[in-house]
Amino acid sequence: MQALSPATSTNLEFLLARRRRVNRVAPSQMIIRSAYRYDSANAASSANGSRADWQASCAILASKVVSQQDTEKTGEITAVNGHRTLDLVPIDNLPKPLTISDLAPAPMHGSTLRVAYQGVPGAYSEAAAGKAYPECEAIPCDQFEVAFQAVELWIADRAVLPVENSLGGSIHRNYDLLLRHRLHIVGEVQLPVHHCLLALPGARKEYLTRVISHPQALAQCEHTLTKLGLNVAREAVDDTAGAAEFVANNKLLDTGAIASARAAELYGLNILADGIQDDSSNVTRFVLLAREPIIPRTDRPFKTSIVFAHDKGTSVLFKVLSAFAFRNISLTKIESRPHRNRPIRLVNDENVGTAKHFEYLFYVDFEASMAESRAQNALAEVQEFTSFLRVLGSYPMDMTPWSPSRED
Ligand SMILES: O=C(O)C(=O)C[C@]1(C(=O)O)C=C[C@@H](O)C=C1
């Protein structure tokens, strides 16, 4: 994993130290457990409001989360990413997904921006990469973890990662990965997701015995599938386009795939039903990740994403949220995830004893730029209540007006 540079190592500690002076908060009140020492040389350059200053404010305050090699494996349908040639359409020239074993450091490449995404061509994540960076080269990866590593190892410049869907809710796994890795959120993309039921030419809806897709896509189409009379087995695979590819490669006449119209085209499948998401305004939000943070601005709407933990019970959450409320900063998302390193504690009211107490990390998105003093003040306050705080990124909001037109 890429080490933090000295510039980033001064981190939010410096920025908040400045705010602390302004706010006259005693140093003892700051509960910072920084893995990195305050560095006066860097601080001096940061004081000029430079890029280093911002990088400093984005870096990690204190991480108790150890990077773990994810051992979860795809399971049964590994052939999804096999890319064998299909008789119906030549798909030889599609890029092959990266696997863990492909991840060796690569030489610097040319000027085309490379964007890593999880899935195979035709996946919605590929479309999200194209929406964010229209001229980019989209690099398919077989796992989310690989997409992160592709950026960390300079194989790709950005990774695009789905984090929430208007019907299915949060994609929890990606929240965990955001914390485990050291990449910065530099943008977001909201993508209308228009699902189709795909099958081999000649296959009929009545004869399908199972429908396969990404679990989120299955969840987003649950009611419509039932309405279509498809009370058949539903099986989860790694990504929607991979499901289409699997059906095509294995010539499965009894299996339908939920995926995009583009996936139908790429893998030579027919569209048996179009627009099968349970709500026509189905939207997935993706975040764009990079090795370096961007410099936050105030000339357009920005969002900031943070993650924090505390060890003082639930009243802390109220205090943290009020730090934003008092400054009229709107929260757009709050998500909690178990604190894996400290999953459970046994305490009573005096913090000793028997009651079960689960520990959580909280992810919060709020509508303000880290260039705004109200956001900096809010975070300075949040830091006083929390034992761990990290700014995941401050980035322009996707302000594209929603339209029900298909984007896939
Ligand atoms: O499988 C894909 O096509 C993806 O890009 C993944 C994903 C997801 O993880 O939510 C993205 C958008 C849709 O909501 C369904 C699936």
UniProtKB/TrEMBL annotation:
Q: Which InterPro entries match?
A: ACT-like_dom_sf (IPR045865), ACT_dom (IPR002912), Preph_deHydtase (IPR001086), Preph_deHydtase_CS (IPR018528)
| Protein localization | Plastid, Chloroplast stroma
Entry's Gene Ontology BP terms? L-phenylalanine biosynthetic process
| Catalytic reaction(s) noted | L-arogenate + H(+) = L-phenylalanine + CO2 + H2O
- Specify the domain of life of the species encoding this protein: Eukaryota
Q: In which pathway does it act?
A: Amino-acid biosynthesis; L-phenylalanine biosynthesis; L-phenylalanine from L-arogenate: step 1/1
According to the UniProt entry, what is the EC number of this protein? 4.2.1.91
| Any Pfam family | PDT
| Keywords on record | Amino-acid biosynthesis, Aromatic amino acid biosynthesis, Chloroplast, Lyase, Phenylalanine biosynthesis, Plastid, Transit peptide
State the GO CC annotations: chloroplast stroma
Enumerate the transmembrane spans: none
- Tell me the GO molecular function terms: arogenate dehydratase activity; prephenate dehydratase activity
Q: What does this protein do?
A: Converts the prephenate produced from the shikimate-chorismate pathway into phenylalanine.
- Please give the PANTHER family that the UniProt record associates with this protein: PREPHENATE DEHYDRATASE P PROTEIN, PREPHENATE DEHYDRATASE-RELATED
What name has this protein been given in UniProt? Arogenate dehydratase
Q: What is the lineage of its organism?
A: Eukaryota, Viridiplantae, Streptophyta, Embryophyta, Tracheophyta
